[in-house]
Amino acid sequence: MSGWIKIDRKIQDNPVLNEKPFDKFHAWMDLLLMAEYKTRTVFSGRKEITLLPGQILISQRKLADRWGWSRMKVIRFLDKLVNSGMCTTNETTNETTNETTLTLVNWRKYQTVRTTDETTDETTNETTQINTLTIYTDKEEKNKQRSARARESRFRNYDERHTDYETLFSEVGK
User: Fold this and answer.
1) What does the alpha-carbon distance between residue 47 and residue 59 come to, in Å, rounded to a whole number?
2) Rounded distance, CA 103 to CA 134, Å?
3) Residue 37, φ and ψ in degrees, nearest 5
4) In this predicted model, what pLDDT tens digit does every residue of 58-103 receive, in sequence order?
5) Mean pLDDT, the chain, as a whole number?
6) How many helices (H) and strands (E) does the chain have?
7) Does 67 map to a domain?
8) What are phi and psi of 102, to 5 degrees?
9) DSSP E strands: which ranges in the chain?
10) What's the pLDDT score for residue 122?
């Protein structure tokens, strides 16, 4: 199966879909939904950290509570994600927190609008960020072209029908 779907982050508020304990799929989806969608500065204790799109700052203990898992199960799951190349981790340790910055490796790749000309085997370093304004401009242009073709088609059909009626009426009048 290929392709992707949009999922509203509000789905996290649905108690039916967030029953604990999570399985690995739900934990992964939760990480995707928690990831930042734009650059944002947060504080970990007194330390200021800039999170980029696709990053999460959270402790293993918070993930364990959130998912209904033991802390060791969270550690094993995150290790599995790192070893499979799905995310990277950067532990931020200070006097008040023991948080981890998770970077979801292909997060941006799945969040951008793609054209059929783009290949899906891009490496994560080669993914391009598409300007939202350009997307809307392209959509507007496509819609204008589609409307123009539809209008042209209607007029062409009208002209063909009109010509047929003229021929029909001219023959009836003879």
Assistant:
1) 15
2) 27
3) -105, -10
4) 999 999 999 999 999 999 999 999 999 999 998 766 656 788 899 9
5) 77
6) 5, 5
7) yes
8) -95, 135
9) 40-44, 47-51, 55-59, 87-93, 98-104
10) 43
Better pLDDT: 138 or 84: 84
Q: How far is residue 80's CA from residue 98's CA, in Å, rounded to a whole number?
A: 20
Asked if the structure places residue 146 within a domain, the reply is no
Establish if 78 belongs to a structural domain. yes
Total domains, the chain: 1
Angle at 142 between CA 137 and CA 148, to 5 degrees: 125
- Domain containing 47: what range? 9-111
User: Closest by alpha carbon to 127, among 53, 56, 36?
Assistant: 53
pLDDT in tens, 151-162: 666 656 555 555
